[in-house]
Amino acid sequence: MSRYSLTTRVATRDDAPILAELWSDALRRADRSEQLADLELIVKGAAASPEQRVVVVEYDGQVAGAVHLRITTLSPLNLEPCVQSIHPRVLVQFRRHGVGHALMEAATAFAEENGILHVVTAVPHASRDANRFMARLGLAPVVMYRVAPTAVLRSRVSPQRVPVGADGGRSKVIAARRSLRRARAERLGLPEQA
To answer: Is 141 within the bounds of a domain?
Structure first.
């Protein structure tokens, strides 16, 4: 006889507050009411689409974990269909009670229902437990997904680029100083500095 009961079901809009708690680090930075509105839209959109599903797992009647499932391709270049298991999360107090297995079972069942041969997922790179769990289930690492704000990336890929509409006078001064440094280094026979 089981001491606890796990139930898997499709999420409803009423689950938005608990989903916000589960996925707090994955949601856009906004106030709580906007995050809840986003989640209600996500749940509503998933319910209306045969290619998406938001699944929650209840542990003795309390939501213990959730996952967003979506049919897509392995990548924009590899058109093999797959089911993405997006942000499978379990609340801390319900870990090690089978909730994670139930979430991944839901992903597997969704893939089988749709005749899809692959399930992919992503877990935080710093979460040792989550990465070990996924490895035990047979999910191998394929890529490292990295994210950066556009402004940060711009500053690193072309730091001398002047934004459109900005005053170009400052960049001309900097270029003139660099030219003078190079000329001085050539006169003195010093190696050029970057």
So the answer is: no
Q: Are 193 and 181 in contact (CB under 8 A)?
A: yes
Q: Is residue 143 in some structural domain?
A: no
Q: Report the candidate in 88, 74, 80 with the shortest Cα–Cα distance to residue 26.
A: 88
Say which residues have a Cβ less than 8 Å from residue 108's Cβ, sequence separation at least 6: 119
Give CA separation, 167 vs 84, 162, 173, in Å.
Answer: 46, 8, 11
For 107-174, give the DSSP string. Answer: HHHHHHHTT---EEE---TT-HHHHHHHHHTTPPP--------HHHHHHHH-TTPPPTTS-THHHHHH
Range of 181's domain?
150-188
122-166 residue pLDDT tens:
888 888 999 999 999 999 988 888 889 999 998 889 877 555 555
Number of domains in the chain: 2
Sheet bearing 62-73, strands edge to edge: 6-10, 52-59, 62-73, 81-90, 119-121
Torsions phi, psi for 9 (to 5 deg): -150, 165
100 and 154 co-located in one domain: no
- Residue 129 structure tokens: 């437990």
- DSSP type of residue 80: -
Q: Indicate whether 194 belongs to any domain.
A: no
pTM to 2 decimal places: 0.76
Q: For the segment 78-104, what is each residue's pLDDT rounded down to a tens digit?
A: 999 999 999 999 999 999 999 999 999
